[in-house]
What we know:
Strand order of the largest sheet: 1-2-4
Radius of gyration: 24 Å
Strand content: 35-45%
Distance between the termini: 76 Å
Structural class: mainly beta
Order of helices and strands: EEEEEE
Number of helices: 0
Number of strands: 6
Number of domains: 1
Largest sheet: 3 strands, antiparallel
Amino acid sequence: MIDTINPTASVEYIPAGTGWTNQNIEAIVTGFSESITGLNTTGYLFTDDRSFVFTFQDLAGNTGSITATVSWIDKTAPVITLNGADTIYVEYGSEYTEV
């Protein structure tokens, strides 16, 4: 019987999770459905939001791919803008509301 089934895999993200972060995210390809002879890379380091395609080949020459996508890196520093005076005196324990 000739193998004509394309291999599959999964992607793991380090650190795990999809919450907003300002850190780099590493994606590694894991969980192959069968033995692999060719792989374009074992990991990819995301420094900003984008996608990367892992490609691989099984022993019979069938090819597979999986796309890793990161959309939760935010390295933009926050900007705080005051609407009022640049010096404000507030009595200890009092509330202040920016106008």
